[in-house]
């Protein structure tokens, strides 16, 4: 074992480096190369590419696939406090063709580093989320879904590290420490130039200690210099490709296109989706057209700061069917106007002098 | 018509062949030990009350209990 050697300044020539043995010489050479490499890397000034989950974040926010609903819906949100954010939500859904009538109670508590969320269903299913942020770019997350029927429970642990120009994310779903069964996902995304980032995601499934299956996905993301458009691609060597394109046409209008292509020997399929989102002063309108013959629209209209009205419609032309949804969202605050003012002032003061 | 002897032999063979039904396992996988099930049950019932307790005690103007239950207060 080499005697401890202080790290060498990368700019002094190596001949003046103190070395008592060849072992310490090699570690000092290695640490000097490491120092010079990280200095060169920092000087490149590459931006952080975001995580692999957020690769298509803008496209998912523009398309209404995650927001469309049918039947009647009412969401009552009550925020008790802003600064450590604490909100309670009651959601009712009724009259849907695809889902049974449901009631859902949710609570959110968030400070700067900690995020706690819990929700309980009318059936008694509980879903829980915890996010804890550490100071050096690490975020630890845990998510659990617990149901009354045994065997349907799910636990997901995640560790996310945001480096200066890369992101590393490790997830484990239902892991068991002694025989390492479960599903393990590792993903890495690195900025190569100021506009281009590429990475991989590896999914290892181990349902029993003797069987395991590894699936790799390759990702690429190109962001324009003025950040007005983003193109991404995800490719699995088995023959699955997902390519997206998002552009901000103006400050009120977003456009997104999405292509999913499956070209395996067993199945050949493709779906293309085009969507646009209009962000107006009091409303948000999303419209979408699909290659499976579906045309959908979603309108969220805000009448007062506390009351918003939602309308969702989808027509499937090939199957000649339609789905319509109507909803209301009421956000009330338990704070009186003076308390709200105090909280806004506190938040502004915290933003001006961020904690060390 | 089989003789009494044959009937006896057949009955013995059937008796031996009848497998005793195994004691029904209350666990579905070898991972679900009673400690894990206890932890899951505790988490299931205590998670939402824990969030509500943390939110109530640490939010800035301490809200009263009625504000939690009634959406109008």
From TrEMBL, chain A:
One GO cellular component term = mitochondrial outer membrane
Q: Name one GO molecular function term.
A: protein transmembrane transporter activity
Identify the main location: mitochondrion
Answer whether the UniProt record assigns the keyword Transport to this protein: yes
What name has this protein been given in UniProt?
Answer: Eukaryotic porin-domain-containing protein
- Sequence segments annotated as region (Disordered): 1-25
Task: Output compositional bias ranges, type Low complexity.
Answer: 12-25
Which terms under GO biological process does the entry name?
protein import into mitochondrial matrix
Q: Which UniProt keywords apply?
A: Membrane, Mitochondrion, Mitochondrion outer membrane, Protein transport, Transmembrane, Transmembrane beta strand, Transport
Write out the annotated subcellular location.
Answer: Mitochondrion outer membrane
Give membrane topology per the record: Multi-pass membrane protein
Q: Could you say which protein family the record assigns here?
A: Belongs to the Tom40 family.
Does this entry carry the keyword Coiled coil? no
Q: What's one Pfam family here?
A: Porin_3
TrEMBL record, chain B:
Q: What InterPro entries is this protein classified in?
A: Tom7
Instruction: Please list the GO biological process terms of this entry.
Output: protein import into mitochondrial matrix; protein insertion into mitochondrial outer membrane
Main subcellular location of this protein, as a coarse class: mitochondrion
Q: Name one Pfam family in it.
A: Tom7
- Note whether Transmembrane occurs among the keywords: yes
**One GO CC term on file:** mitochondrial outer membrane translocase complex
What keywords would UniProt list here?
Answer: Membrane, Mitochondrion, Mitochondrion outer membrane, Protein transport, Transmembrane, Transmembrane helix, Transport
Localization annotation: Mitochondrion outer membrane
Q: Where does the sequence pass through the membrane?
A: 35-56
Q: Topology in the membrane?
A: Single-pass membrane protein
The similarity annotation says: Belongs to the Tom7 family.
Protein's UniProt name: Tom7-domain-containing protein
Species of origin reads Lentinula raphanica
Q: What is the lineage of its organism?
A: Eukaryota, Fungi, Dikarya, Basidiomycota, Agaricomycotina
